[in-house]
Amino acid sequence: MATILLAGQRRTHVGTSGARKVRGAGMIPAVLYGPKEEPTSLQIQYKDLEGILRSKSGENAIIDLRLDGTEGLMALIREVQRDPVRRRILHVDFQHISMTQRIRVDVPVHLTGTPRGVKDFGGILEPILREIEVECLPADIPERVSLDVSALGIGDAVHVSDIQIAGIEVLTDAAQVVATVVPPTVEKAAVAEPGAPEAAEPEVITVKGKEEGAEGEEAPKKAGGAEAPKKGGEGAKKG
To answer: How far apart are CA 16 and CA 18, in angstroms?
Structure first.
């Protein structure tokens, strides 16, 4: 893996207020640490670090860190803190490394090919493990690990043990599943449970338009074609 040049300066403003001043100047507060050295507070240009993180190497890029224009120190990005809402970089931790000593890093897994179970049977490819931990020399760190899933049928899976890279020791448990193909999702029609009451049919109401009064009351019956006398009317005779 190629190294990337990054300029930085030792930071005199420390603490929360100092970090704000650094960010206000378009810089990022950072720290460099190593196994046999005291942590060093740094500041680097925001745009420079952002460009590295967006590169193919990402956080696994080997950085030639030039502090105050002096001879470079080889380093790896170990932690990037971001604002939870705006996702802007807030702070970075660098680890001073030796190019002749093996180190442990997490490497992303890239699945290649279309599984047979997806292409022929409508299955769904389900990634399980997004990255694996490996140990190797810094120059041998891969940008990513590719794994072919073309032969997978429904219910088949690939495991960490299927990943073999020369010169690199895989530390993640070999039995862990990296990806699998699951059956297609089928929506089942709603079925009434045994013994459940059936839904009642809606009641049908017949409206007798000409046989009902204005308020829905039954119209007065007619006798001999003449209208029945009204109750309490003038035509009613006393008994």
So the answer is: 5
Enumerate the domain spans of the chain.
3-97, 104-182
Which tens digit of pLDDT belongs to each residue from 108-124? 999 999 999 999 999 99
The fold adopted by the segment(s) 3-97 is Ribosomal Protein L25; Chain P (2.40.240)
* Residue in 7, 133, 132 with CA at minimum distance from that of residue 64: 7
| C-alpha–C-alpha distance, residues 50 and 47, integer Å | 5
CA–CA separation, 142 and 94 (whole Å): 19
pTM for the model stands at: 0.68
Q: What is the pLDDT of residue 196?
A: 54
- What share of the chain has pLDDT > 70, as a percent? 77
Q: Domain 104-182 is in which class?
A: mainly beta
Give the three-class secondary structure for 222: strand
Minimal CA–CA distance to 102: which of 185, 167, 33? 167
- CA nearest to 6, candidates 54, 66, 59, 58: 66
Domains 3-97 and 104-182 share a fold: no
